[in-house]
Write a structure and sequence with these properties.
Oligomer: single chain
CATH architecture of the largest domain: 2-Layer Sandwich
Distance between the termini: 54 Å
Radius of gyration: 27 Å
Shape: elongated
Strand order of the largest sheet: 1-11-12-13-16-10-9-4
Length: about 425
C-alpha cells in the first residue's frame, strides 16, 4: 500500500513533540483519547531517528574504508587492501539490514499517524454526537403548510423522480430524474455555478474517478476506504465529492504566495456506499448512493484560512437565502467532525413535510492536515517552504435542497419554484 512508504503524513511529528499536551487535549474533543497513539508516534519516531543515525554512521565508515582501500592499492599495500575490502562486505550487509529496519520504522510510524485524525481547532465544542453540536445561527421561519406531503410522494404525484426505476436499472439509492425533476436538477447546478463565478471561483470539471494517491492526499484513504466505490481492476475509486480531485490538482505543487487564496469550484456526480440503510430517515432523497453537488475549494495562506472559512459559510448561506429556505448553521463538535477537519460548519434546511432538519452543506478548514499529505506548499516571506491551508464546502449538495424546495413550496395548485430559479427552469411551478 502507498501509505506504508510515505513520510509526509497528516500531523507533523515535530508539532506533536513541541505541543504534546495541547494536541492531546484538543484531540480529546473528538470524544476519545488518542494519547496512546501520540506516545507511539514519539516512540516510533525515536526508533526511526536512531536507525537513521546508525545507518548514516555506517555509511560514513564505508566511505572512509573505501578511500583507504584506494590509497592502499596506490601505495602497493595489496594485502591490507584485500582485508579492507572484506570489511566493506560486512559493512554493506549491515547497512542493507539497517535500510530494511529504517523502511519498516517509517512504515510503522506512518501507520500510526494515519490513525490519528486532524486536531480540532480551539473553538470546536467537545462532544461525541450530533446532539453536542452548537447552533450558531438560524435564518427564516419554519414553513407553515396546509399540505404536507413528503417529497417522495410529491415526486410520484408529479412524475419528477422515479426511485423504483432506479432500483431496476442499478439499485437502491440511484434515482432516475424525469421531466421537470430533471430540469430542476439542471437549473440548480447552473444557478450554483453561476453564483460561484460571481464570487470569484474558477470553474473546473475534474475526473470523477481518482487513484489511490489522490484518495490518500485528501484523507479519504485509508479512513473511508469502505465508503467509496472501488474499481478493483484499475484500482480507481469513484469520488465521494469534487473536493478530492480538485484539491489533488495541487498535489506535489509549490504555489505562489501572491496567488493565495486560490478559489476553484466544480460540479460532479458524487458516489457514497455508506448510504445504504433503511427507514424514513433515509427515504427518498434524504440519503443516496449517487447525487449531484457543486463543491467550492480554496487554498489559503495560514493566516487567512479561518476568515476565509467564515466567508465560505456566508456564501453558502447566501445561496440558501436566495432559494427562500429556512436554515440553521451548526458548529460541529469534535466527535461529529470529519476525520480530516479542524473546524466544520454544517448548514441544515428545515423540511416542512418531514418536520426535521436536513443537512445540505458542510464547510471545513483542514489547516495543514491535507497539504502535508499532498506536499502542497508555498514560499513564505523568508523564502522558506510552508504548508498552505486547504478548505472546502458544498455549495450546494442537491438532493436535500430539492427535497426541501418541493416540500416547503407545495400548494393545492402545485409546487411553486423560487423566483431565482425561474430563468433557468423556464417554468414557475410544477403542476
Amino acid at each position: 500500500m502507498i501509505f506504508a512508504v510515505l513520510i509526509h503524513t497528516m500531523l507533523q511529528v515535530q508539532d506533536i513533540r513541541n505541543d504534546f499536551d495541547g494536541i492531546n487535549t484538543r484531540l480529546a474533543k473528538r470524544g476519545k483519547s488518542f494519547e496512546n497513539e501520540l506516545n507511539q508516534v514519539i516512540s516510533l519516531d525515536d526508533k526511526r531517528k536512531q536507525t537513521q543515525t546508525a545507518l548514516d554512521n555506517l555509511l560514513a565508515i564505508l566511505n572512509t574504508v573505501s578511500k583507504q582501500i584506494g590509497e592502499c592499492f596506490k601505495t602497493g599495500k595489496r594485502e591490507e587492501a584485500e582485508k579492507l575490502k572484506a570489511q566493506t562486505v560486512e559493512i554493506k550487509d549491515q547497512s542493507k539490514a539497517l535500510e530494511v529496519d529504517l523502511k519498516q520504522a517509517i512504515a510503522d510510524l506512518t501507520d500510526v499517524l494515519t490513525q490519528i485524525p486532524n486536531v480540532p481547532s480551539s473553538v470546536v465544542p467537545a462532544g461525541k454526537t450530533p446532539e453536542d453540536n452548537e447552533i450558531v445561527y438560524t435564518h427564516g421561519n419554519m414553513p407553515e403548510l396546509k399540505h404536507k406531503k413528503p417529497h417522495w410522494e410529491l415526486c410520484e404525484q408529479y412524475d419528477l423522480i422515479d426511485f423504483e426505476l432506479g432500483v431496476k436499472v442499478t439499485g437502491a439509492g440511484f434515482p432516475v430524474y424525469k421531466g421537470k425533476g430533471a430540469r430542476l436538477q439542471r437549473a440548480l447546478i447552473n444557478f450554483f455555478l453561476d453564483e460561484g463565478l460571481k464570487h470569484g471561483y474558477n470553474e473546473v470539471q475534474p475526473p470523477i474517478f481518482i487513484n489511490e494517491a489522490s484518495g490518500f492526499g485528501t484523507g479519504q484513504l485509508p479512513d473511508k476506504e469502505g465508503q467509496m466505490y472501488h474499481m478493483t481492476v484499475d484500482n480507481l475509486f469513484a469520488i465521494p465529492t469534487a473536493e478530492v480531485p480538485i484539491t489533488n490538482l495541487y498535489r506535489d505543487v509549490i504555489v505562489k504566495k501572491e496567488d493565495l487564496p486560490i478559489k476553484n469550484m466544480g460540479y460532479t456526480p458524487c458516489f457514497r456506499r455508506e448510504a445504504g440503510s433503511y427507514g424514513k430517515d433515509v427515504r427518498g432523497l434524504n440519503r443516496l448512493h449517487q447525487f449531484d453537488k457543486v463543491e467550492i475549494v480554496q487554498i489559503a495562506h495560514p493566516t487567512q484560512s479561518y476568515q476565509i472559512l467564515d466567508d465560505m459559510s456566508a456564501y453558502v448561506q447566501s445561496l440558501l437565502q436566495q432559494l427562500g429556505l429556512n436554515y440553521r448553521v451548526l458548529k460541529l463538535c469534535g466527535g461529529d467532525m470529519g476525520f480530516t477537519s479542524a473546524l466544520t460548519y454544517d448548514m441544515e434546511v428545515y423540511s416542512g413535510a418531514q418536520e426535521k432538519w436536513l443537512e445540505v452543506s458542510s464547510v471545513s478548514c483542514f489547516e495543514t492536515y491535507q497539504s502535508n499529505r499532498l506536499k502542497l506548499r508555498f514560499k513564505n516571506d523568508d523564502g522558506k517552504m510552508q504548508y498552505a491551508h486547504t478548505l472546502n464546502g458544498s455549495a450546494l449538495a442537491l438532493p436535500r435542497i430539492v427535497a426541501a424546495l418541493l416540500e416547503n413550496n407545495q400548494t393545492e395548485n402545485g409546487i411553486e419554484m423560487p423566483e431565482v430559479l425561474r430563468p433557468y427552469l423556464g417554468f414557475d411551478r410544477i403542476d
